[in-house]
Amino acid sequence: MAMIADILLAAGALGAGFYCFVLARRLARFNDLENGVGGAVAVLSAQVDDMTRTLGAAQKTAASSTESLQALTERAEQVAKRLELMMASMHDLPDTPPPAPPAAAPDPAEPVFVRRAQRAASR
């Protein structure tokens, strides 16, 4: 009976050893950096690093754009206030047209009353 128990124990140990050998080979293929999941993890890790750098650059650009846009908005608000004041001051002007500019003074050497024919010839 002891002999049968020893044979079964040895067979179990051989089976467990063979099972560990198969698992070790599968794990080696699983962690292979070129074909297995290990390679995929390495590639994804590199992509995550690239995306992190790109995101940082995008955040810096967005921050500078925000500052620039804020400055332009403040400037536009100031100009809008000035335009509103100008428009309000335009309402205070009278509706009558401005007076005509004064006529040019006549040349003292030229007579005051002249016939049309003479005036056309003198020009």
Explain this structure:
With 123 residues, the protein is mainly alpha-helical. It has a domain at 46-92. It has three helices and no strands. The chain is rod-shaped and about 160 Å long. It starts with a helix and ends with a helix. The relative contact order is 0.03. The mean pLDDT is 85.
Notable characteristics:
single chain; mainly alpha; 3 helices; rod-shaped
Task: Report the total helices.
Answer: 3
Structural class: mainly alpha
Determine the strand fraction and express it as a percent band: under 5%
Poorly predicted regions are: none
| 3D shape | rod-shaped
- Tally of DSSP β-strands: 0
Radius of gyration: 50 Å
Q: Sheet with the most strands?
A: none
The helix/strand order is HHH
Q: End-to-end span in angstroms?
A: 151 Å
- Report the mean per-residue pLDDT as an integer: 85
The proportion of residues forming helix, as a percent range, comes to over 70%
